[in-house]
Amino acid sequence: MTKELTGTQSSPEISAEDEIKEPRRFKVLLHNDDYTTMDFVIYVLKKVFNKTEGEAVQIMMKVHKNGIGVCGVYTKEVAETKVIMVKNLARKEGFPLKCTMEEV
Question: Against a cut of 0.85, is the pTM above it?
Fold first, then answer.
């Protein structure tokens, strides 16, 4: 036996609080310094950010010329992980490469 639905039941109202929100996004940035080699920056961009050789060179040149370059835009947790990965790689190789994140 099936129970027939009647129009007496009210549908729940969706409030603004119930709406699904997009996660906050963060830019991961590399900062220029006088010690980290261009080759190492390209290596980091390829290894950590999965950039192609051409993309890595372009970003590295922006960092070199402008003092800062965007590596990508990610959710908070992914951005934090990538910043830590860059810092760990740089310290392991003896470079002071600075990597930060900021909300988009």
Answer: no
